[in-house]
Amino acid sequence: MENSGQKIKELGLILSEEYPGVTLEKFNRIAKDFAKRLKGGETILFFGDLGSGKTTFIRSMMEQFNVDPNEVRSPTFNIVNTYQVDGQVFYHIDVYRITADELFELGFYDYQKQNSILLIEWAEKIVDEIDQPDYLVCLAINELNMNTRDLQIYTGSDS
Questions:
Q1: What does DSSP say about strands 135-141 and 149-155: parallel, antiparallel, or unpaired?
Q2: Which pTM value belongs to this model?
Q3: What CATH number did the domain enclosing 84 receive?
Q4: How many DSSP H helices and E strands does the chain contain?
Q5: 3-class DSSP state of 151
Q6: What is the mean pLDDT, run by run of 10 residues, along the chain of 159 residues?
Q7: Which end of the chain is less packed: N or C, by CB atoms within 10 Å?
Q8: How far apart are alpha carbons 124 and 136 in whole angstroms?
Q9: Residue closest to 61 by CA, chosen among 118, 112, 123, 130
Q10: Rounded distance, CA 8 to CA 156, Å?
Q11: Residue 153 counted as domain residue
Q12: Is residue 64 part of a domain?
């Protein structure tokens, strides 16, 4: 994640939680606990290399909201997946294949509503277009055990 430290600093986010070398079971538990914080109107950025667990984390989050985990897939090709739960709308966005300039055409700015929650994978690519995210989840494959993940959760000043 080249330059991610500088990008995090520019966003003014604060490291609030750190979990090194977590198993899949604990990883899923952390994601579900994280989901309990969300009330609507939040923007959550996900930084992480390919295979680090961005979609898996989101799948576990959505499970907390009773969304069938089989319905939660990476939106790599269709760019946006939408999940509606009890009056809240979750927009699961993958910006890996688009540029910041294409965000406007995508209607990205229309997704930011009071009852919506934005879950943005590969957010490091468009971080300059995000005013003030509420959370940033950084994921990495653990260097000592490739079956575990390192996880950091950053919060914004209002979160």
A1: antiparallel
A2: 0.89
A3: 3.40.50.300
A4: 4, 7
A5: strand
A6: 65 91 96 94 93 94 90 80 87 86 76 83 84 91 95 83
A7: N
A8: 10
A9: 118
A10: 10
A11: no
A12: yes
